Amino acid sequence: MATLPGVKYNKTVLPGGLRLVTEQVPAVKSVAVGVWVNVGSRDENDRERGLTHFIEHMLFKGTRHRSAKKIASSIESLGGSINAFTSREQTCFHALVLDEHLGVAIDVLSDILINSTFSKINIEREKQVIAEEITEIEDTPSDYIHDLFSRVFWREQAMGQPILGSYQSIAAIDRKLIKSYMKSHYTGGKIVISAAGNVSHRKMREMVKDKFVVDGGAPVAANGSISPENFAIKCFKNGSTQTHLCLGFPGLNFGHDDRFALLCLNTYLGGGMSSVLFQKIREDKGLAYTVYSFTDFYRDNGVFGIYLATEKSRVQQAMRIVMDELKRIKRRKLSASQLDTIKAQIKGNLLLGMESTTGRMNRLGRFESLTGSYMSMQDTIRAIEKTNVSDIIEIANRIIDSKKLTITSLGPIKNSDLSSIKWS
């Protein structure tokens, strides 16, 4: 689908500031629709921790027109699906339906955004559900280490606070706080509606204009964030014999011109089973079951990180391999064939993602929300193709800076267990 002819992009800014972006793909029968709100955990103050995610849950608990069951069955009875997610910067409510049922999807998504009732009984019930969700994360070390790492990496700024909040902050949420937060953040200027599939932009515009009548008030600016400028290590205990490690450096923002070079660096180091870290740490030495690198691109900054889990006795050996490879890539040029393989992997992943209308909708919504612009798949492929071996060395030397390294562990080790490793 990614290379099919006839794919057409359109954008409209409606009165009140709400933006509609569509990508028409005539060869399919489905339409994926997303309602993107530019609000996430980074927008919360101390009293509001976890509130954005809590509201995401509450919008599915009942409106003036539909019960919670009716919200789900309205889409699922047609063979479609409806769901949502909350990140550090955005909340997205999305549905996938056959093109003939697009009107139903628009009606349901607008209903939950505009007409949710937030009854007291549902609020109290959902507090229990989210408390269980927090417990599940804390009982899953491979997930929990990323929350701990973010908190340490961002030096306790709002950007690094847990998306789910804490038991205490969730317990304090009430209807007044929800309504006040929504009034400030769920305004037209912060909402993007993206749709991909067999969809007419003109018809979509008319449906959205009629259904999404939202306050056009001035959007509240997101909390700023400052990337760390100093080295930090923090070890957390959890009673386990296995150690989970996460280390990272300040990265790039979502719209940065050099993000494709960083993607190539990430793919080389830990972007799959063929990556150098996976091969050396797992396949050659048997030191870990899971090891990977990752890139997080945000509106104004980013993170480049590495995760692995291993026994306490193997931590030093595994971490030495990681540091050796980080140092090596700063001075060693990849061969032309290595770079070609990396580019093929990145392009393949992108194009496979475009095989689904949901993948296209997510890409559309994220680009518009974070940059206010659109980048075609053809332009993306060209940007990847332009990346050369010197670009990768340059980005490695800029990003991999030991003075700005943050290391977080969860398990039995302490700072002294890492003292023999040379971090510079």
Outline the structure in words.
With 424 residues, the chain is α+β, with helices and mostly antiparallel strands. It has two domains: 8-211, Cytochrome Bc1 Complex, Chain A, domain 1 (2-Layer Sandwich), CATH 3.30.830; 232-418, Cytochrome Bc1 Complex, Chain A, domain 1 (2-Layer Sandwich). It has 15 helices and eleven strands. The protein has helices at residues 51-58, 68-76, 102-115, 120-138, 141-153, 167-171, 175-185, 201-211, 259-270, 276-284, 315-329, 336-353, 357-371, 377-386, 389-399; strands at residues 8-13, 19-24, 30-37, 81-86, 91-98, 191-197, 232-236, 242-250, 291-297, 302-311, 406-410. The longest helix has 19 residues, at 120-138. The protein is globular.
Features:
424 residues, Cytochrome Bc1 Complex, Chain A, domain 1, alpha+beta, 42% helix, 15 helices, 5-stranded mixed beta sheet, 6-stranded mixed beta sheet, globular, 2 domains
Q: Give the CA-based shape.
A: globular
Profile the largest sheet: 6 strands, mixed
User: Count of helical segments?
Assistant: 15
CATH architecture of the largest domain: 2-Layer Sandwich
Summed over residues and divided by their number, the pLDDT gives a mean of: 95
Helix content: 40-55%
Number of structural domains: 2
| N-to-C span | 46 Å
CATH class group of the largest domain: Alpha Beta
The CATH homologous superfamily of the largest domain is called: Metalloenzyme, LuxS/M16 peptidase-like
Tell me the radius of gyration. Answer: 23 Å
Q: What is the string of helix and strand elements?
A: EEEHHEEHHHHHEHEEHHEEHHHHHE
Would you give the CATH topology of the largest domain?
Answer: Cytochrome Bc1 Complex, Chain A, domain 1
Sheet with the most strands: spatial strand order: 1-2-6-3-5-4
Find the structural class using helix and strand composition.
alpha+beta
How many strands?
Answer: 11
Low-confidence stretches: none
